[in-house]
S-adenosylmethionine-dependent nucleotide dehydratase RSAD2
Amino acid sequence: MLLSSLIASPKVILRLCISTVLCIFASVLSKVRFWTRGVCKGTATPPAPDLNSPEDRGATTPTSVNYHFTRKCNYKCGFCFHTAKTSFVLPLEEAKRGLKLLKEAGMEKINFSGGEPFLHEKGEFLGKLVEFCKVDLQLPSVSIVSNGSMIKERWFQKYGDYLDILAISCDSFDEETNQLIGRTQGRKSHIENLYKIRNWCQQYKVAFKINSVINTFNLHEDMTEQINQLNPVRWKVFQCLLIDGENAGEAALREAERFVIGDEQFKDFLDRHGGVPCLVPESNEKMRNSYLILDEYMRFLDCREGRKDPSRSVLDVGVKEAILFSGFDEKMFLKRGGKYVWSKADMRLEW
Ligand SMILES: C[S@@+](CC[C@H](N)C(=O)[O-])C[C@H]1O[C@@H](n2cnc3c(N)ncnc32)[C@H](O)[C@@H]1O
Ligand code: SF4
C-alpha cells in the first residue's frame, strides 16, 4: 500500500532525485574544500618542493665563487673538464663590474681559474683582477688555480701581496706520467716548476696549495713523501670527473673515459695517503654540484644534468636572477669543507 502510493506520487520521486543530486554535490564540494584548504593553508601535507625548480629554492648567497675567465690553455690534459670551446675573455672593466656585483651579493672568496689563468696578457689581466678584488672589493680571500707553467717571479713581486692562496695542479711526481696525461708543454718539467713556485709562495707569503686529479694513470702512485716535503696548506685530491660536452660525449673536445676510476680505486688511493694531514678528498659526488662556477661570459654553469648548462650572464640579469640557475648545492659545499680558513691573514704561514 505504502509502496504503491510512493510509486504513484511523481512529487515524491522528484524529491528523492533532488536529495540524491544534493548529496552527491555536497560530497564533491567537501572533497574540493579539503584539497584547497590543504594546499593553500598547509593543513594537509603539502606537495614536496621541487628542488629542481628555481621558484622552490631559497636564495643562494655566492659566498665562494670560481671564475673561469678564460678557456684557453697551453696544456693538453686528457681529462680536462673545462676546455677551449671559445677564446672569449671579457674586457677588464666588465669583469670588474661583474665582480663588484658579486661582492654586493655576498661574495667573500673568489677563485680565478680557467683554462690557464696566467695565459691571457701574460698574467697581467689576472694580476689586475686579483689586485682589484683585494684592494677595491676588500675580499677576505683571493685565490688562483693554475698549472703553474706560465708564472714568473715578477708576477709575485707585483701582485703577490694581494693573493691569499695559489693552488698548483700536479697529478704525478713522475715526469713520464705527466707526459702521458698531457699535463705538460713540450718537454718542460712540470715537477721542477712546482718546487720553484712553492719557494716563491714562501718568499712572497702566499699560501701554497696542490690539486691532484686521480685517474687511471696515477691511481697506484704513492705521493706521500713529495707532498709532505712540499707541505701545502691543502692538498685537494679529486676523483676524475666526466662532464658531457667538455670531456665526454659528441660535442666534447676531450675524451676522458679512459681516465675515469671507480669509487673503490679512489678509496684505495685515499687509504694509501691516510697519513697526509692536509689531504682533502673530493669524490665525483662531492664535486659535481658543490661549486659556484662562472664561465667566461660570467654565466653560472649548472652541472646537475652531468653537463654544464649556462644561466644568463650576471652582467645582464644580476646575481640574484643568474644564481637561480647555478645548480649549486650549498649543503654539499659545506659537507666537502668548502668553507675553511681562506684568508692568509688568518693562517699561520710557518715559512
Ligand atoms: C680546469 S683546471 C683550470 C686551472 C689550471 N689550468 C689547472 O689545471 O690548474 C681547474 C682544476 O680542475 C682540475 N680538473 C680538470 N679536469 C678535471 C676532471 N676531469 N676531474 C676532476 N678535476 C679536474 C684541474 O686539475 C685543476 O686542478
Ligand atoms: S686541466 Fe690541464 S688542460 Fe685543463 S685547463 Fe688545466 S692545465 Fe689546461
